[in-house]
Design brief:
Number of helices: 11
Strand order of the largest sheet: 3-2-1-4-7-6-5
Radius of gyration: 18 Å
Structural class: alpha+beta
Helix content: 40-55%
Strand content: 5-15%
Order of helices and strands: HEEEHHHEHHHEHEEHHH
Shape: globular
Distance between the termini: 19 Å
Bound molecules: zinc ion
């Protein structure tokens, strides 16, 4: 149950009012369970006061199979999620975003996932042309904790369509950057940070929110932001000292 305990702590950390990233039932956190299962927040439960009953363990195979063979209706997709619960007697039902989380947790090096709707980042994600900001960086710690670029995911309806679109964006990102994204910007929706530990997800989430606040502040000056150049970003991304810092932060 160590995973569940850590997942509860992560949910509480991401619901920190200072982040303004998840209110009411917004957002979700998930983690690998056994090789065949994942843990995810249940539909309708709140991150801020989530306890053990707010989470549900789900078999990942039937959920992932839905990305290959799309169920004909939303009701059929919901039925697949409900039947994928390891304990069918539990009252909690898996979130509709379980498809997306299952896909992310199937990627190499991804063991924990955090998803929120930060007011700061959403203020950018709802504007035309926000995509160009996803692949730019404004200060070094943003590169260290959020990656050299964030993966842009065009708006689609939540649930299975989002999981399928996110997979498409991940594959395109991997082709371009040669690695799996560590953060995702979902157009008109929110933010995802993935990692090998809950601490890595929390650090990435906190820094992404700070970056969004800084970018908003910079844009409010009326002057153009001075972006880090591609060379400057790569220097930070490949700097051994920064790798050391990442390891310290993500313990
Ligand atoms: Zn969401």
């Amino acid at each position: 149950m160590a995973v569940l305990k850590q997942l509860i702590s992560l949910a509480h950390a991401l619901a920190d009012p200072d982040l303004d990233a998840a209110i009411l039932a917004e957002g979700n956190v998930s983690a690998r369970g056994s090789d065949e299962t994942l843990w995810i927040k249940a539909s309708g439960s709140q991150m801020a006061d989530a306890g053990p009953d707010a989470f549900v363990e789900v078999w990942n195979r039937p959920v992932l199979a839905s990305l290959e063979q799309t169920p004909p209706t939303e009701a059929a997709a919901r039925e697949i999620l409900n039947l994928a619960r390891k304990d069918l007697s539990t009252q909690a039902l898996p979130s509709t975003e379980t498809f997306m989380h299952a896909y992310l947790l199937s990627l190499p090096g991804v063991e924990w996932v955090g998803h929120t709707h930060p007011s700061s980042l959403l203020s950018i994600l709802v504007t035309e042309g926000a995509q160009e900001f996803a692949e730019r960086r404004i200060f070094p710690d943003e590169v260290v904790l959020c990656g050299a670029a964030s993966c842009w995911v065009p708006y689609v309806a939540p649930g299975l369509p989002l999981a399928i679109e996110l997979r498409k964006s991940t594959l395109a990102f991997q082709k371009r950057w040669g690695r799996i994204p560590s953060s995702y910007w979902l157009q008109n929706h929110g933010l995802i940070v993935v990692g090998r530990s809950p601490r890595e997800v929390e650090c990435g989430m906190r820094m992404a929110v700070k970056s969004a606040r800084i970018l908003l502040g910079a844009l409010q000056t009326g002057r153009k932001p001075r972006w880090l150049t591609a060379e400057e970003v790569q220097q930070i991304a490949n700097w051994p000292d920064e790798h050391y810092r990442q390891r310290c932060l993500w313990k």
